[in-house]
Amino acid sequence: MLSRSHERLIQALQRRKERATRGLFLAEGVRVAEELAHSKIDLKFALASPALEDTPRGRDLLAILRKRTAVHELADPALRRLAATEQPQGVLVVASEPAASLAQIRIETASRVLVCDAVQDPGNLGTLIRSADAFGAAGVILLPGCVDAWNAKVVRAAAGSSFHLPVVSAQLDELVTWLRVHGFQIWGGAAHGEPYDAARTPARVALIVGNEGAGLRPETQALVDQAVRIEMPGRAESLNVGVAASILLYLLSQRNV
Amino acid sequence: MLSRSHERLIQALQRRKERATRGLFLAEGVRVAEELAHSKIDLKFALASPALEDTPRGRDLLAILRKRTAVHELADPALRRLAATEQPQGVLVVASEPAASLAQIRIETASRVLVCDAVQDPGNLGTLIRSADAFGAAGVILLPGCVDAWNAKVVRAAAGSSFHLPVVSAQLDELVTWLRVHGFQIWGGAAHGEPYDAARTPARVALIVGNEGAGLRPETQALVDQAVRIEMPGRAESLNVGVAASILLYLLSQRNV
After folding, report:
1. Number of C-alpha atoms within 13 angstroms, CB side, residue B238?
2. pTM
3. B5 to chain A nearest CA, in Å?
4. Helices in A94-170 by DSSP H: which ranges?
5. How far away is chain A from the Cα of B39, in angstroms, using its nearest Cα?
6. Could you report the predicted ipTM of this complex, rounded to two decimals?
7. What 3-state DSSP class applies to A189?
8. How does residue B27 score in pLDDT terms, banded at 50, 70 and 90?
9. A257 vs B134: CB contact, 8 Å cut-off?
10. Which residues pair with A167 in a beta bridge?
């Protein structure tokens, strides 16, 4: 049984301001819950539908969740009504937002970071975090105007990657200082840019991606040291922002192998 | 003013069965409406909010739409209520679904096609169509179980690419015959596959991508001639389906330059 106070907390955590005040977020879906259960993130409690017991994967997840936190049973329709994503797959976990700051990003000789400027679609931001993780970026930095990284839809689309690398919110001026101190060259994707060239790629690259419709704001565009183009022989004018950034992150990861 | 029959038609077109019966679809948003207005696709009518007149881009769009079809004015809140996407940006067009069959896919000496197997997320399918177009694929083929290519959210995410290349629904057996007749090697993305190698890539490749959660069905997995892996030095287990396919389509397009 779920208490009214748990229910009210979950409803509150659908709102960015409440998440920030409480330092908590919602993680929904089997894959995300598995990754969260295996992470070092502090778990507050979980809700699980009885249907989760029906599969070996579901039973494994329940076992590990129960070792780490209180698991309350809730019928699937009620769980779906409470959830922020469309298909919570019978599991919802309330957990503490990991603290993250620029100082926590571990920079090596060759490092990439991804900077998001006013990326507003939760699916796109989640995909960007997932690709940054897949291609070994040291961190993801969110400038003001981005959707909250701890929005349940972002966490879901990131498929566990939110728990693997620092996802840091920063102001533009502190970011610029940090990037300059650590010798990052700042790249922006642009149709008018130079084609990607592995031989001319520096060891430290910060890739900035902009808003889905409007692109980079003038103040972030002004920071770009190198505009880079992905060659497209077809008719589409541009790529989805998550796809464009993922291709550049992939190419950068290949160069640094 | 909008007649009740127009309104009912738009509501009907939110449903796949009604779109198929009537052979019509909804296109929403400025970019998609622009691409549609510049295509050869038959337009039935358009709705435009007065706010569209406020920008040069909006006025240009209105001018070209008016040359091609009847444009009805509708206030923004009413237009948003009727629309299938969250932000129709003041414009909605009703148009005829282009007829498309495997025979319409123009194959050249070196050709790529993208095959989607049970891709169910509209945003992912739209992104896949957009990337296939960007990287010069000859067509996109949808197997049963995919979301409808003419769903308004798919059309929106495809950003006009739906009007650039054939998007064909096909049964598995007819697809297999067609691919074999034309000498396509069938590729599937897989974590256990071979790393991508441009030197070992044949001239004609059909890339098959599967469902977001479940991957390829056993009957499509059995068709794969070559499992290909995207190297990921980071911690994420896998990529978003749209991202993974886009990276492979990009690499294939580079090889064929």
Report:
1. 21
2. 0.94
3. 32
4. 122-134, 152-158
5. 12
6. 0.93
7. strand
8. very high
9. no
10. A140
